């Protein structure tokens, strides 16, 4: 399979992001709460600002984890990660959301 297309590169990039954060402990197939929090803060800063009190609360991090953790095993696997990204993409496409360019 050729990896030259933009779509393939985008998917491989998303896989790379998952693996980067999941590999911070011995379980490289799942994101725990702290790995998920760091991934969201660093890779999706426009969605969840680091300074927002909502995201700083452990209670609210638990809510985010619960929403993403479809099988309720206390961690997020790659399938749950991609389902969430697909839902995010659909929402962004309907709302016309985009990223602002840095000045």
TrEMBL record:
This is EF-hand domain-containing protein. It comes from Anabas testudineus (Climbing perch). Keywords: Calcium, Metal-binding. It comes from the Eukaryota. GO terms for molecular function: calcium ion binding; calcium-dependent protein binding; transition metal ion binding. PROSITE patterns: EF_HAND_1 (PS00018), EF_HAND_2 (PS50222). SUPFAM superfamilies: EF-hand. Residues 56-91 form the EF-hand domain. The lineage of its organism: Eukaryota, Metazoa, Chordata, Craniata, Vertebrata.
């Amino acid at each position: 399979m050729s990896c030259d297309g933009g779509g393939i590169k985008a998917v491989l990039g998303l896989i790379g992001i998952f693996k980067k954060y999941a590999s911070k402990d011995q379980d490289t197939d799942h994101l725990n709460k702290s790995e998920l929090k760091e991934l969201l803060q660093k890779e999706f800063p426009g969605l969840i600002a680091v300074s927002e009190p909502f995201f700083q609360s452990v209670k609210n991090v638990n809510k985010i984890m619960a929403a993403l953790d479809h099988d309720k095993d206390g961690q997020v696997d790659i399938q749950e990660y991609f389902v969430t990204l697909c839902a995010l993409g659909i929402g962004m496409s309907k709302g016309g959301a985009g990223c602002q360019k840095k000045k």
